[in-house]
Write a structure and sequence with these properties.
With about 450 residues, the protein is mainly α. The protein is built from 15 helices and no strands. About 75% of the residues lie in helices and about 0% in strands. Helix 4 runs antiparallel to helix 5 and helix 12 packs antiparallel against helix 13. The N and C termini lie far apart (about 145 Å).
Length: about 450
């Protein structure tokens, strides 16, 4: 029993560290675009995101129930044997989170967690212990649908924002005012992130408590101390700021202007809040990335960097299998070595975390250089201001060209007629003068 208690403590500690990595990994979802447009200073942005993540964690527990009473069939596994499996699954999730953070790739912390748990369960228990129907409906389908949906919404909102504020009289369009709107929309995204992502760790800890017999399986809601611990941990991770991923989302996908940022954040918040209410444990990172891409496509003259989009997409595809593979290897050590396997897993987890962190120091990224031109000036990222003309502008230009051509044709005709009349008059005067000269003789 003492061994089980120790494993539960290790699971809770590792789950909270995963929550911490989730926080700094996903700060960019809410704050990359307002930092990129200069709506918020970098440090102010991450502080605001941390506070709202903390608040959001208390607003719902639907996603937590998906984790603790959803993808894993607890009745198919001996409770005490499942605790090391959860531990192994968390190692897979943390490893992938740290690696993608180092590479600056906005991958899904959620899918890393699911992948780690699924891989560890397959090795440590059996295929029957996984509810693949739940995985498909609550994880896979939202992963496919949500980024596309968010991108379409962001595209439409961006087009509307520019269409409604476009002017044809060369006067200021007032689009810089969207910066103020970004403060609200980015705050809403941070709040939505807290309602979705903090709950995933709550679900893991609740699942561990149920397996250890410290919580009844009939109790679907997490304990208050679990909610508090997860809320404060994800807020702390958010405050640390995942500057590498902020740089990727803020200027790696497309150059973001205030109206774009407002549209992307509106789309992200709406998609995440809707999914949280329905219990869909989707990836807030994928939603935010899809929104930024959609807003880039929606603004004329904006260029989406498809090479970076491709890198991110590859990361999304690899997240589930890669984290599942690491989770499976960690579970394999437990199956082979029992308690010693758990200890070796713990040592390896610490070594991986420390190793990746030390590697990140070679190319240090923080608030001062993640968005250097923005952090220094407080202004939006400089992009070419001259966008291609709209259809209406092209029609006006064609009409102006036609009128100008007609005017020039009339002027040429008038000049020609004047010249002809003058020539005729001169000829007549010459003829009259010649006739008068002959008459005088």
């Amino acid at each position: 029993m003492e061994t089980a208690a120790l494993i539960v403590v290790l699971v809770i500690a590792l789950a909270l560290f995963f929550d911490f990595t989730n926080g700094f990994h996903d700060t960019a979802n809410a704050m990359a675009t307002p930092i990129a447009t200069g709506a918020l200073k970098p440090k102010v942005a991450v502080m605001l995101a941390a506070g709202l993540n903390l608040v959001g964690a208390f607003l719902s527990t639907e996603v937590s129930k998906t984790i603790s009473h959803g993808i894993i069939r607890e009745d198919q596994i001996e409770p005490l044997a499942f605790l090391p499996i959860i531990f192994a699954g968390l190692i897979g999730a943390i490893t992938w989170n740290m690696l993608t953070w180092l590479l600056g790739l906005p991958s899904s912390s959620s899918h890393a967690l699911f992948g780690g748990l699924i891989g560890a369960t397959l090795v440590g228990a059996s295929v029957l212990a996984i509810d693949f129907g739940m995985v498909l409906s609550k994880v896979v389908l939202p992963a496919l649908i949500a980024p596309f949906t968010a991108g379409v919404i962001a595209f439409v909102v961006t087009r509307l924002a520019y269409a409604l504020t476009r002017r044809y009289d060369s006067k200021p369009d007032g689009r810089d005012g969207f910066r103020w709107g970004q403060i609200f929309t980015s705050s809403l995204v941070a709040l939505a992130h807290g309602t979705n992502d903090a709950q995933k760790t709550m679900g893991v800890i609740t699942l561990a408590l149920i397996m250890a017999g410290w919580q009844s399986s009939d109790q679907t809601d997490p304990h208050l101390w679990v909610i508090l611990a997860c809320a404060f941990t994800i807020a702390l991770g958010t405050y640390m700021g995942g500057w590498r991923i902020i740089r990727t989302l803020g200027k790696g996908l497309t150059d973001v202007k205030p109206a774009q940022g407002f549209s992307a954040e509106t789309s992200t918040a709406a998609t995440i809040l809707a999914s949280s209410a329905l219990g869909f444990a989707l990836s807030t990172t994928q939603v935010a990335s899809g929104s930024v891409i959609g807003s880039g496509l929606g603004r004329r003259g904006s260029k989406v960097r498809w090479g970076m989009v491709g890198r991110i997409a590859i990361g999304w595809v690899l997240t589930l299998p890669a984290s599942a593979a690491v989770g499976a290897l960690a579970a394999l050590l437990v199956v082979w070595l029992g308690g010693w396997g758990v200890l070796i897993d713990a040592v390896l987890a610490v070594a991986i975390i420390v190793g990746l962190f030390l590697r990140s120091r070679h190319t240090h990224v923080d608030s001062s250089n993640a968005m250097s031109e923005v952090a220094d000036s407080g202004l939006a990222v400089k992009v070419p201001r001259k966008a291609p003309p709209t259809r209406r502008q092209r029609a006006i230009a064609r009409e102006q060209a036609r009128l100008k051509a007609e005017q020039e044709a009339r002027e040429r005709a008038e000049r020609k007629a004047t010249q002809k009349a003058a020539a005729k008059q001169a000829a007549e005067q010459k003829a009259a003068a010649k006739a008068g000269k002959k008459g005088g003789r």
